[in-house]
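Hi C.,

You asked whether I'd gotten around to modeling the 102-residue construct. I have! Everything is below, sequence then structure, no commentary in between.
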Amino acid sequence: MRSDYFKPAAVALILVGSTALGGCATKGFVREQIATVNTRIDGMDGRLRTVEGTSGAALTQAQAAAAQSQQNGQRIDQINGRVDGIEQNVQQMQQRQRKPRG
C-alpha cells in the first residue's frame, strides 16, 4: 500500500518538474542570446556610422559641385555678353566696309 501512495506522488512530481523546467530559459541561455543580438547590433551600428560618414562626405562634395556649377554658369553668362558685344562690333565694322565711300 505504501508503494501505491508513492507512485502517483512521484508521477505528479515528475510532471510538475518537467513542465516547470521545460518552459523556462536559464539565465545563461538568455544572456547568450542577448549577447549574440548585441554583437549584431554593434556590427550594424558600425556599418551605419560608416555609411553616415560616406553620405556626409558625398553631400559636401555635391554641394561644392553645385556651387561651382553656379559660378561657372555666371561666368558663361558674362562671356556670352562679351561675345555678343564683339559680334555686334564686327557686324558694324563689316557694314561700314560695305558702304560705298564717296
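If it helps when you're writing up: DSSP finds two helices and no strands in the chain.

Thanks,
B.
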